[in-house]
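This section describes the prediction task in plain terms. A model, or a person checking by hand, is given the sequence of a single protein chain and must write out its three-dimensional structure as a string of tokens. No templates, partner chains or ligands are provided. The sample shown here is typical of the held-out split.
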Amino acid sequence: MAKHAHHGGSWKVAYADFTTTMMALFLVLWLTAQDTKIKEAIERAFKNPFSSLTKESVGIIPNKDAHATHQQRGNFDSPSAVQLELLRRVTEDLARFLQNNPEDQHTVKLEISSDGLRIHVFDRSHRPVFEPGTTQFTPYGNWVFSTMAWVVTRYPNFLVDLEGHTEAGTRPPRPDYTPWELSADRANAARRELLRHGVPPTQIFRVSGLGDTQPMAVTPPGRSNRRVTVLLRVRPPQRLDTQADNTQAAATL
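The expected answer:
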């Protein structure tokens, strides 16, 4: 009986090499089509994959010595190049609308960190956002947060955290109303202003008042730390098992 010739598996190795080469070619072509910021982000990710992709501050107030804040990472520990590009776009949009007046240069600061995009809105004496000692917005404060709301509504994939801050030594207007209450109420006032100008309630994730516990080290001496910080985080994708649990829970209702 004649035996069939055994051809071996060398063709599989050759096919695997061909597929790998085509994939590498595709990645090279994709990378060459990207802009400089994405290329730099990918380069940093390969050089040090366990650190954040960016630790720089950009926008209205330059900050060359800024460091990323790692205390509240949330779901943004490893921002992808796509997420970084999205953050870059919203930063450019906000900077374009909020830096029309030279006086605004020291009022709003945009900072990209490992958490997302932090928007610090300072309550300066020469450019107040709130009426002194209250949660009532000045006309300028209304303008800042209405403009911010208009930009945020264009990016529904963002979650919004709001933090109220006061400066050390703030005198409470009355004994039972401390900087804790004031900072929390101002953060809530910012939340209401964003909602009033079209931000969906589902985009608001957290509202907190931190009193004077988190002063900004980069703030020049003599400048107030009174501020509301808005953190924009890319909404994490919903897990499949969570979707299944929600579906099952809905079915049992």
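For orientation: Residues 49-78, 239-253 have pLDDT under 50 and may be disordered.
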